[in-house]
Design a protein that fits this description.
9-stranded mixed beta sheet; alpha+beta; 8 helices
């Protein structure tokens, strides 16, 4: 008769204690899972750095290496997502080089940027510091976030009226996102606002000039060059084709007035040697999307072309094969900010499959620079 049950207060106290203990256990388990995941990311990052060290030995001077390069070259066996192994992580290893203290051997540090599903992760070596970041959103594959690129092609010769539009048509190279409108340069010069728009109401993201030998001896008018100047100074992009910014072919004075936007110097040295082969001398987002056109030292085929009285002071991506002059005087493709110079057009406006892919990539790259997606 004196045996009593638990009171309501005792039951509630017991439930409360059990709840607290459960919370502690669950919290501990979650911390353990998160720590294990972080360690898995660190291990993958460390493995990618070890693989990159071998890659750099085979490719001296490389500035960054993509996970796909490591995987395809058998420098690494596995880049699967440590979270669930359901997919591969995309990412890159940036290689930072400085002269060693003895002045002979180089010292290297590495930054890894990984996108593993929804997790954005960065890792520094040799500091072994890790942190979450949005930088991997600047990885080449995230240029796929670009939904549409409006391109105005100002062509110099009637035979190439729909040339760029045909190259970028449908899914062939433009991936249905490069939308090209075309205008003959004489018509553009008569009324450039009608085609390009005005400040605050631009009709294009990227304006492309070319592609014909000597640009068919056509220059911009002073008024159209001034409008293009405003377009570029307010964040627009331009791609200058073969023999646009040059003192040859009649001296394209108004094109030359825009040379600072692509950091190209038109010179009076008009000697040239042509080639139908170009070599990638710099790799990055441009060489990755929408086509992986190759790593450094990859040779691509183009219609015969040449550099004519130009010195590039920006980023040189491709140079001609078999020509001994320095890269900036032997430039097939260079960029500066969100503008580019490409030597497409010497061979009567023809383009190989390689060259069409290069042009598609450079259009995406220009737009990515505009949108702040590039952080090479």
């Amino acid at each position: 008769m004196n045996n009593k049950g638990f009171t309501l207060v005792e039951i509630l106290a017991t439930i409360a204690i059990l709840g607290i203990l459960s919370g502690i256990v669950i919290g501990g388990v979650q911390k353990y899972i998160e720590k294990s995941r972080q360690q898995a990311y660190d291990t993958l990052a460390s493995s990618s750095i070890d693989a990159t060290k071998e890659y750099v030995m085979d490719h001296p001077g490389v500035e960054q290496v993509y996970f796909d390069d490591l995987l395809e070259g058998n420098y690494i066996d596995n880049i699967s997502n440590p979270k669930d192994n359901s997919s591969n992580c995309s990412g890159r290893v940036k290689v930072n080089t400085k002269k060693g203290s003895n002045g002979v051997l180089d010292d290297y540090t590495y930054n890894v940027f990984m996108c593993c599903g929804s997790d954005n992760y960065a890792y520094e070596f040799p500091k072994k510091k890790h942190y979450k970041t949005n930088n991997c959103k600047a990885h080449a594959y995230d240029i796929s976030e670009i939904k549409e690129i409006k391109v105005l092609h100002v062509y110099p010769y009637n035979a190439v009226a729909n040339q760029l539009k045909n190259w970028m048509a449908d899914k062939k190279h433009g991936d249905e996102r490069i939308k090209v409108s075309s205008v003959y340069i004489d018509e553009f010069n008569k009324n450039p606002i009608n085609y390009l728009g005005s400040i605050g109401n631009w009709k294009a993201d990227v304006i492309v000039f070319g592609f014909w030998d000597c640009n068919a001896s056509k220059d911009l008018s002073k008024n159209s060059a001034q409008l293009v100047d405003k377009f570029l100074s307010t964040g627009g992009s331009a791609i200058f084709g073969h023999d646009t910014i040059t003192k040859g072919c009649g001296n394209h004075t108004n094109f030359i007035s825009l040379q600072q936007y692509v950091n190209v110097e038109a010179t009076s040295d008009l000697s040239w040697n042509g080639s139908n082969k170009v070599t990638i001398v710099k790799s990055g987002i441009f060489t990755e999307y929408p086509y992986r056109i190759g790593n450094q030292e990859t040779v691509l085929t183009i219609p015969t072309s040449h550099c004519y009285g130009q010195v590039a002071h920006g980023d040189v991506w491709l140079t001609y094969n078999g020509i001994t002059s320095s890269a900036n005087k032997n430039v097939y493709l260079s960029t500066y900010g969100n503008n580019a110079l490409i030597q497409t057009g010497h061979s009567s406006g023809q383009a190989t499959e390689d060259e069409q892919k290069i042009i598609a990539n450079i259009i995406f790259y220009m737009k990515a620079n505009q949108d702040g997606l590039v952080s090479d």
